Amino acid sequence: MSRILIKDGNNTVLLDNVLLAESLLERMRGLLGRKSLPADTGMLIRPCGSIHMWGMCFPIDAAFLDSNLTVLKIVRNLKPWQLAFAPKKTACVLETAGGVLTPINAGDQLIID
Question: I need a labelling partner for 29 at 20 to 30 A (CA). Which of 46, 53, 62, 89 fits?
Answer without folding.
Answer: 89
